[in-house]
């Protein structure tokens, strides 16, 4: 028969609680990297400035996943991220996204030589272009018309916040739903 002593009785719970605490600590101290290939919309990182496409299918937002500030596009129907090659560059920050009707065009604020500019990314051609190279003041909050022809934004070029409307012209390829009629310019 084994002799029961208070010393052994106290040592077992401490031993197991120590093992449990150590295991919990090790599990919670992972690298925190969530792979970009993950199809999860929400993460444990800061995600802000959401915007929906006109048809409600695409969501664009600014995220800090993997420690990188980036503009992401998520397909709500397919529940996966959409690749946007050449949109997020290492030397710039993209902010304040706005989507056209089907999400083909993305207007956003970025920097060019240290000053903010409005840029437009075309998902069909996978190219970005700066729309406001000549504005000297601060710019913020760009928004696209559903067809992608007009971009409105705020500018402080006169010492106060004013609204500017930029017409991309009648010769651009509009972002309209299939089968929709286009009014004459």
TrEMBL record:
Pfam families (UniProt xref)? PD40
Instruction: Enumerate the InterPro entries for this protein.
Output: 6-blade_b-propeller_TolB-like (IPR011042), WD40 (IPR011659)
User: Domain of life here?
Assistant: Bacteria
Q: What is the residue range of the signal peptide feature?
A: none
Q: Which Gene3D superfamilies match?
A: TolB, C-terminal domain
User: Could you say which protein family the record assigns here?
Assistant: Belongs to the TolB family.
Name under which the protein is recorded: TolB family protein
């Amino acid at each position: 028969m084994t002799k029961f002593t208070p010393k052994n009785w106290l040592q077992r719970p401490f031993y197991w609680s120590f093992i449990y605490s150590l295991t919990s600590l090790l599990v919670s101290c992972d690298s925190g990297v969530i792979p970009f290939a993950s199809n999860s919309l929400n993460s444990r990182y800061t995600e802000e400035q959401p915007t929906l496409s006109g048809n409600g299918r695409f969501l664009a937002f600014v995220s800090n996943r993997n420690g990188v500030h980036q503009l992401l596009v998520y397909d709500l129907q397919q529940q996966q991220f959409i690749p946007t090659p050449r949109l997020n560059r290492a030397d710039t920050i993209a902010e304040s996204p706005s989507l056209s009707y089907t999400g083909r065009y993305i207007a956003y604020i970025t920097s060019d030589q240290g000053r903010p500019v409005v840029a437009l990314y075309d998902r069909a051609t996978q190219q970005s272009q700066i729309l406001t190279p000549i504005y000297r003041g601060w710019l913020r909050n760009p928004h696209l018309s559903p067809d992608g022809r007009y971009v409105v934004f705020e500018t402080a070029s006169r010492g106060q916040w004013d609204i500017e409307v930029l017409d991309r012209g009648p010769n651009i390829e509009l972002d309209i739903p299939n089968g929709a009629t286009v009014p004459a310019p």
